[in-house]
Design goal:
The complex is a heterodimer of chains A (773) and B (138). Chain A is an all-alpha fold and 773 residues long. Chain A is built from 31 helices and two strands. In chain A, helix 25 packs antiparallel against helix 26 (625-645). By secondary structure, chain B is mainly alpha-helical. The chains are: A mainly alpha (773), B mainly alpha (138). Chain B: One of its GO terms (cellular component) is plasma membrane.
Chain lengths: 773, 138
């Protein structure tokens, strides 16, 4: 899909966004196809093998949960793509933008319909990567790059933990197919009783928490707001951050009902909910407020999924699922509204806004609906799921008993009050109050219908689901909850339950929220003071320290490892060579110098070797290149004599020819360069090099002397084969030649290839001329 | 191979080659690498040679029957293949020679390449001193 995009762009020019929206629509229709089946409690599957040896296959599985996610992703996708048409300026690289968006949508859909854990992981990381690209879409803004890097490190890092968790599950059950595990009661029982249960759970929850910005991993989401606003609406409120929630819901049947599950998921959710709600006070950036509210709303769902118990497993799950849908509607809507406001006022600072209701009446109405829904005001859909949240909190507190009976509902109410406060602030700060015109452009006008329609539609949904919840519940929530709970769920949601404890909690929430809002400035100021005083006490600074520390350390490491000049590398290599060869020899031989020395040598050999040593020394001490080169070719010719002495005529001939050629090349080169090169060797360098050279020399000597001392070859030499078969098999009498061209012909071919490559390299080097001349 | 003088010489050439490779001047480095390959070739060939061995060229119709392993006979100080039935093999090891022949040719290729690099470097940078070359211009 994404691949066709550039082609489509050439046809459509600036209307490429509509094409993308059409793709999303097709996805929506495809997903919707599955809806009737899912409502009837069936599932849709399809698979083909991918890495069969590892039991990894590309298999797709759709149940209520997947379909609900699919609908949210593609539905919001359509709206976002349409909205972007107007939001993104025409000068941008639109093709890139929509390509990433579509890639993201594809991987998200792939993820929720994956039935295989490994496949799920692959798509999971794909969403991380596309998210990274979208956050960093404005490449030249440092903050964009920072936010993108942060999100990638945190979410993808969490993904690695998740993969480890899946692998543990695979070890326990012997399969990576989640569906198989889900449909197999005995397997679930096996997992719950297994010793690896807790590690697997912890690892997977880390992955989910990182993706959904829960707990200490929340830090990436506020920075991700550097992305274009439609992206924030799509990825960082409605879909991608829900992936962690999806994962929690997906593994719910496997892990839930245990104490560890409640502590990890529920506890994490409650703490994050309170912390994020509290931190939202400090934000002055309208998108920052929304980011923190997203974190806290996601934490609601986490908490609710964590609230499961054996007696009433369904309450938390259905509430969370319902809230998931509702949150997608109102939060995406709010982001789009924030986008409009930022677009019109050219700022995102809430302190500079106010009184925009006159200029942007429609935007105001839409934003107010969404924000009130978030605050949990009836008759909007946020109210319904909030009520269910309170109910399930009461339930859970009741089941746990003891101090929890009051603690959990109290925490829920406090979280709700925070939510209420920042929701009201969003409306009040932007649309109500006095207009601070000095910061704002003179003429603002309502955006075009293209930009207004998507949020309007979402706001309409907010109202509709609020007033007539039964349809959404029946077609979407019930199947989804059934998919999580693995049993049929019948749910009745209505606006008026009568006067219940939850309603009372809602009323308390509103009062507390209003009170909090009244003290808004004071709380924010206090937070500012605290963070100014203890800058090192935040997860953000921890992250920064780790990342910057890592890059700083690696730079230092590279400076040590890659100093530039040649000699340090060589010295390092030589020292390692010394270590590796000297130590075993000493260990095997026991003594360094063998006692059996053979000093009886013929005269001519002594002369020959003496000359070699002399000539070699000559290369080192002679100043002029010409002299040194004559010395080195003398060594070469002497070596060919040594070969004759060692009964190797072929080598001697070859060595003669090669040495002649090498000498010619040497001479040709030094014609072109100055005749001498005075290297000023300091004493310390000389001492160092002499030391290393002597060490090498002595090591080689010890090796050679020991090689002739009683080391019995552990296997028969290959040479006998060649000696015996040279004539019968190859018909050649010169064994060396036969080996080269017959028995080991490929080696020789390789040698010829090396020669050719060197020749080509030389030719190209000679042809290349830099332009600087 | 148990020829102490040869061993000493090879070891010395190794040492000198190492010293040359550590120089800053690339031409001297090239000389050092040439020396290093000479030393290595001599070492490898010498491992397969022994006193009284014959050149690995078969003169008769077929090779002398062999079998057994090279063992070190300390009494004579000669590394020689000892055949179970007591017939000594007549040839030095042909395999090491074949390998060395390949090595000789390849070392020529690398040396030539390195030298041309030196030459081009001098053309571009006006020096063959590696420590002066901070940045390779294209």
């Amino acid at each position: 899909m994404a691949a066709i995009l550039p082609a489509a762009e050439r046809v459509l020019k600036n209307r490429v966004g509509w094409y993308a929206a059409a793709v999303a629509l097709i996805c929506l229709l495809l997903v919707a196809q599955a809806l009737p089946a899912v409502v009837n409690g069936e599932t849709v599957t399809g698979s083909f093998p991918w890495i069969p040896s590892l039991q990894v296959e590309l298999s797709f599985y759709g149940d209520g949960l997947s379909v609900m996610f699919g609908l949210i992703v593609s539905g919001i996708g359509i709206l976002i793509m349409s909205y972007s048409n107007e939001y993104m300026s025409k000068r941008e690289d639109l093709s890139r933008y929509y390509r990433y968006l579509l890639m993201f949508m594809g991987s998200m859909l792939g993820m929720v319909f994956s039935s295989n854990a490994i496949q799920l992981f692959v798509f999971w990381e794909l969403t991380s990567i596309t998210s990274f690209m979208l956050i960093g879409y404005w490449r030249n803004r440092p903050m964009s790059v920072y936010g993108a890097t942060k999100s990638l490190l945190v979410t993808a890092g969490g993904g690695i933990f998740m993969l480890a968790g899946f692998l543990l599950l695979g070890i326990i059950t012997g399969t990576f197919d989640i569906v198989t595990i889900l449909q197999n009661g005995s397997m679930i029982a096996l997992i719950k009783g297994h010793e690896l249960f807790l590690p697997a759970l912890v690892l997977i929850i880390i992955g989910a928490a990182a993706k959904s910005a829960q707990g200490p991993f929340y830090i990436w989401l506020p920075n991700a707001m550097e992305a274009p606003t439609p992206v924030s609406a799509f990825l960082h409120s409605a879909t991608m951050v829900k992936a962690g929630i999806y994962l929690v819901a997906r593994i719910h049947p496997i892990f839930s009902g245990t104490e560890a599950w409640f502590v990890l998921v529920g506890g994490l959710g409650i703490i994050t909910m309170l912390a994020a709600g509290f931190l939202a006070f400090r934000q002055t950036d309208i998108k920052g407020i929304l980011a923190y509210s997203t974190i806290s709303q996601l934490a609601y769902m986490m908490a609710m999924y964590g609230y499961t118990s054996y007696q009433y497993p369904g309450i938390g799950v259905t509430a969370a699922t319902f809230h998931l849908l509702n949150h997608a509607t109102f939060k995406a809507c709010l982001f789009l509204v924030a986008g409009i406001v930022a677009h019109e006022t050219a700022t995102r600072d809430i302190t500079k806004m106010g009184g925009l209701r006159k200029e942007l009446p429609a935007t105001f109405i839409i934003g107010a609906i969404a924000a009130l829904s978030m605050a949990g005001v009836p008759p909007l859909n946020g109210f319904l799921s909030k009520e269910m949240f309170y109910e399930s909190s009461l339930e859970m507190g009741h089941i746990l008993g003891g101090p929890f009976e009051y603690l959990i509902p109290a925490a829920a109410v406090l979280g709700g009050a925070f939510t209420f406060a920042y929701s009201i602030r969003f409306i009040d700060g932007i649309f109500l109050g006095k207009r601070r015109s000095e910061h704002l452009p003179k003429h603002m006008h309502e955006p075009t219908p293209v930009m207004l329609f998507p949020p309007a539609l979402l706001a309409a949904l907010v109202i509709l689901i609020g007033i007539f919840p039964s349809a959404a519940v029946h077609y979407i929530i019930e199947p989804a909850a059934s998919g999580i709970l693995l049993e049929d769920v019948q749910l009745h949601v209505s606006l008026w339950h009568g006067f219940t404890a939850a309603l009372l909690m809602t009323i308390i929430t509103f009062i507390a929220g209003a009170a909090l809002y009244a003290r808004y400035g004071a709380i924010a100021a206090w937070q500012d003071r605290v963070s100014a005083r203890y800058p090192a006490w935040s997860f953000n600074s921890l992250y920064d320290r780790i990342v910057n520390g890592a890059s700083g350390k690696s730079t230092a490491f590279a400076k040590v490892m890659q100093p530039g000049p040649l000699s340090p590398y060589l010295i390092a290599m030589l020292l390692i060579f010394l270590l590796l060869s000297a130590v075993p020899v000493i260990m095997i031989a026991g003594t360094l110098i063998p006692t059996e020395l053979n000093l009886e040598v013929p005269m001519y050999e002594a002369v020959l070797l003496g000359l070699i040593i002399l000539a070699s020394l000559g290369t080192a001490v002679l100043r002029k290149y010409l002299h040194a080169i004559i010395a080195v070719s003398a060594v070469g010719y002497l070596v060919s004599l040594v070969f004759i002495y060692l009964q190797a005529p072929d080598l001697a001939i070859t060595q003669l020819l090669v040495e002649t050629l090498a000498t010619i090349i040497f001479l040709l080169v030094i014609i072109k360069v100055p005749q001498t090169f005075r290297e000023k060797i300091t004493r310390s360098v000389l001492a160092r090099d002499l030391l290393i050279s002597s060490a090498v020399s002595i090591t080689v000597l010890i090796l050679l002397l020991n090689a002739s001392q009683g080391i019995v070859s552990p296997f028969e030499s290959l040479s006998y084969y060649f000696i015996e078969n040279s004539v019968p098999l190859a018909g050649g009498h010169n064994m060396v030649n036969v080996i080269l061209v017959d028995f080991r012909g490929y080696d020789t071919l390789g040698e010829i290839v090396v020669l050719c490559l060197a020749g080509l390299g030389v030719y190209n080097l000679l042809k290349s001329r830099s332009d600087s001349k | 191979m148990n020829d102490t003088l040869l061993s000493v010489s090879i070891a010395l050439v190794f040492g000198i080659a190492t010293f040359m490779i550590l120089r800053r001047d690339l031409i001297r480095v090239a000389i050092g690498i040439t020396l290093l390959s000479h030393a290595t070739n001599m070492l490898i060939v010498s491992t397969g040679a022994f006193l009284g061995g014959r050149t690995p060229i078969i003169t008769g119709d077929k090779a002398v029957s062999t079998g057994g392993t090279f063992i070190d006979d300390l009494a004579t100080g000669i590394l020689a293949p000892v055949i179970p039935d007591g017939i000594e093999i007549a040839y030095v090891d042909p395999l090491v020679q074949a390998l060395t022949l390949t090595a000789i040719v390849i070392s020529l290729a690398t040396t030539a390449f390195l030298l041309i690099l030196c030459y081009r470097l001098y053309q571009e940078q006006g020096t063959t001193d590696v420590s002066e070359i901070r940045r390779l211009k294209g």
